[in-house]
Automatic annotation (TrEMBL):
<keyword id="KW-0813">Transport</keyword>
<protein>
    <submittedName>
        <fullName>TolC family protein</fullName>
    </submittedName>
</protein>
<dbReference type="InterPro" id="IPR051906">
    <property type="entry name" value="TolC-like"/>
</dbReference>
<dbReference type="GO" id="GO:0015562">
    <property type="term" value="F:efflux transmembrane transporter activity"/>
</dbReference>
<dbReference type="GO" id="GO:0009279">
    <property type="term" value="C:cell outer membrane"/>
</dbReference>
<keyword id="KW-1134">Transmembrane beta strand</keyword>
<dbReference type="Pfam" id="PF02321">
    <property type="entry name" value="OEP"/>
</dbReference>
<comment type="similarity">
    <text>Belongs to the outer membrane factor (OMF) (TC 1.B.17) family.</text>
</comment>
<dbReference type="InterPro" id="IPR003423">
    <property type="entry name" value="OMP_efflux"/>
</dbReference>
<keyword id="KW-0812">Transmembrane</keyword>
<dbReference type="GO" id="GO:1990281">
    <property type="term" value="C:efflux pump complex"/>
</dbReference>
<keyword id="KW-0998">Cell outer membrane</keyword>
<dbReference type="GO" id="GO:0015288">
    <property type="term" value="F:porin activity"/>
</dbReference>
<keyword id="KW-0472">Membrane</keyword>
């Protein structure tokens, strides 16, 4: 018992230190986000409620094995009673008359000897129903992964755009320094420098806008995972996952559990139509008791075994089995529809992956060419061959090429994780 409480204490302390450690490190992975979002989701509490409901239901069903006690009473008045009449009179022989008002109060105890498996099957039914309800919740909780993907990779996109914006500022600063030398020497107009300075202010405005959007995304992600995420929080860029394996979504497991539940319902139909054998003991007090010749109040008891075989269930057994078969077919249709839609989504996502991979390959070539042109333009600007507008055009062209690569790279990574989420496989970094 002491060891048990020690283990519980360690678990509690571990849960307490997780948020603290996260707050100190300020590094968040996508797997952390999945787990924290799951813990923070209000619906997760439903699992505990389902478990408690299962415990209560199973316990109640198991009590069917216990002796069943009932107390009954009745008072009746009947129009006629048994009378004793002899063909000849016998001197000294007197038969009592039975009252037309009769009373009875008794208790009966029934103990199941054989119930055809009714209690056992009912327990299995309660457990399976709990599995179905828990899996319904799991289906809803699993949808959090898609929301985590959108917010997590949205922040990564903004991080990369902020980095690129800083590179753009450096290129413009370089142009300002070079043109300023011409202005100081009187070989260039001041307006040329002002053009670059205006562009620099635009990059600073863009930095403010990107940082604001990043904070908004972080706030939404923090709300989703139940953590206060500071602006300094670093989101670890996840690795590309291998996309193999079968579809293993919670929805499919839910359909399997529903199918198993129908099997148990079919078993309950069979149990319902089986004979039942009980031991019983009945004790009471009434007038008349077991001896109908005694018109007074007397206690009595009787005991024995009782066979009960209700055949009324046979009337509806065929239709009930047909309903179960119909529900099985309905589940099969739902499964086929789900796999159909999921495979369509996977086909589209895989097509996006191939497209983005090809775009990335050409992005690197475009960036290399644009960087070469920009470097040449910087030298030409320094030598007075081109003006500031020509230089800005080449700088912005390279910046746009790099932004396109950032967009394609993050989209490829996000699509990679979306495919894994659509497949329903565990995500391991």
């Amino acid at each position: 018992m002491i060891n048990y409480f020690r283990i519980r204490l360690l678990i509690v302390l571990g849960w307490i230190t997780i948020p603290t450690a996260f707050a100190q490190d300020q590094v968040l992975t996508i797997n952390d986000s999945y787990e924290l979002a799951r813990r923070n989701y209000p619906l997760i509490k439903q699992f505990e409620l389902i478990r408690k409901t299962e415990d209560f239901s199973v316990e109640n069903a198991a009590k069917g094995y216990l002796p069943q006690v009932s107390v009954l009473g009745q008072a009746t008045y009947q129009s006629a009673v048994t009378e004793f009449k002899l063909p000849i009179a016998i001197p000294g022989a007197e038969f009592p008359s039975i009252s037309k008002d009769q009373y009875k109060v008794y208790a009966e105890v029934n103990q199941t000897i054989y119930d055809g498996g009714a209690v056992r099957t009912q327990i299995e039914s309660q457990k399976q129903s709990a599995l179905v309800e828990a899996q319904r919740v799991e289906v809803e909780v699993y949808k959090l992964n898609e929301r985590v993907n959108q917010l997590f990779f949205g922040v990564l996109m903004l991080d990369e755009q902020l980095k690129q914006n800083e590179l753009l500022k450096k290129d413009i600063d370089l142009g300002i320094r070079k043109i300023q030398a011409f202005i100081d020497n009187g070989t260039a107009f001041k307006s040329n420098g002002n053009t670059l300075k205006a562009e620099l202010l635009k990059t600073q405005q863009r930095a403010i806008e990107l940082a604001s959007n990043r904070k908004a995304y972080l706030d939404m992600l923090g709300l989703l995972i139940g953590q206060d995420l500071a602006e300094s929080t670093v989101l670890a860029k996840p690795e590309t996952l291998s996309l193999t394996g079968e579809i293993s979504r919670p929805e499919l497991r839910l359909l399997d559990y529903q199918r198993q539940n129908l099997d148990i319902q079919d078993q309950l139909l069979k149990v319902k139509n089986r004979p039942k054998l009980n031991f019983f003991f009945q004790g009471g007090y009434g007038r008349p008791a077991l001896n109908i010749l005694n018109n007074g109040f007397d206690p009595y008891y009787m005991t024995g075994v009782r066979l009960n075989w209700s055949l009324s269930g046979l009337y509806t057994a065929k239709n009930n089995r047909a309903l179960i078969a119909n529900n099985r077919e309905s589940i099969q249709v739902q499964q086929a529809l789900f796999l159909y839609n999921t495979n369509l989504s996977l086909k589209q996502q895989n097509a996006d992956l191939i497209k983005l991979q090809k775009l990335l390959e050409s992005d690197d070539e475009i960036i290399a060419l644009r960087e070469s042109v920009k470097t040449t333009a910087a030298a030409q600007l320094e030598n007075g061959v081109i003006n500031t507008n020509d230089y800005l055009r080449e700088v912005n062209a390279e910046d746009q090429a790099r932004l396109n690569r950032i967009l394609h790279e993050i989209q490829l990574l996000m699509s990679n994780y979306n495919v894994r989420t659509t497949r329903g496989q565990n995500i391991d970094q």
